[in-house]
Design brief:
Layout (H helix, E strand, L loop, with lengths): L26 H15 L4 H13 L4 H10 L2 H8 L5 H9 L3 E3 L2 E2 L12 E4 L7 H13 L5 E4 L4 E4 L14 H8 L2
Antiparallel strand pairs: 1-2, 1-3, 3-5, 4-5
Helix pairs in contact: 1-7, 2-3, 3-7, 4-5
Length: 183
């Protein structure tokens, strides 16, 4: 255990000029970090995220809340929230592979926005999949959001309402993201 030990964490970056560097975070830096955090939580690319933002801008009302609502109502996120997948990435893959029905029709597009009254069901052949079974057991401890309704014996869920900011548990300041894009 020497002075150069990799295990020891220092409060400054590595290198000759690490200690002398000032770590000021600009307003743009904080806005960018919030946007990247939100983008990574939902597993989206920049172009896809920007398209979702433009859809939120077109709606009347508070843009930030519309953005969060659109992100929450993506099919891959709803599958995750219902507990059919252990993560959003896994939910995206399961949707891509055609394991889910949206209103009785096979859906392979994870970015589809679900609406109030839509039913998401696991296909009959896919109900025995190990990832789906394991995720449902884990989801019981996590809980289902109030804007969704899960019928576990039937392996299906229904969208009861449009999610509001209070229903979303992602810790992000969406107003800062709106400020970044409205530059």
């Amino acid at each position: 255990m020497t002075e150069k030990c990799a295990i020891e964490r220092r409060s400054y970056p590595p290198g000759q000029h690490g200690q002398s560097r000032k770590g000021r975070v600009t307003e743009y830096g904080t806005q960018l970090r919030e946007k990247q955090k939100l983008r990574r939580v939902y597993g989206m690319q920049e172009r896809q995220f920007l398209k979702t933002y433009h859809l939120a801008v077109r709606k009347k009302g508070i843009t930030g809340e519309h953005l969060l609502s659109l992100l929450e109502r993506r099919l891959d996120n709803v599958v995750y929230r219902l507990g059919f997948a252990a993560s959003r990435g896994q939910a995206r893959q399961l949707v891509n592979h055609g394991h889910f029905l949206l209103n009785g029709k096979k859906m392979t597009i994870p970015s589809v926005t679900v609406n109030v009254g839509d039913t998401i069901a696991v296909k009959e052949k896919s109900r025995q999949l190990v990832p789906v079974q394991a995720a449902l057991e884990v989801a019981e401890g996590r809980g289902i959001p109030v804007w969704l309704d899960l019928d576990r014996p039937q392996f299906q869920g229904t969208v009861q309402a449009v999610p509001t900011k209070q229903d979303i548990d992602v810790l992000v300041n969406e107003q800062v993201v709106v400020e970044l894009y409205s530059r």
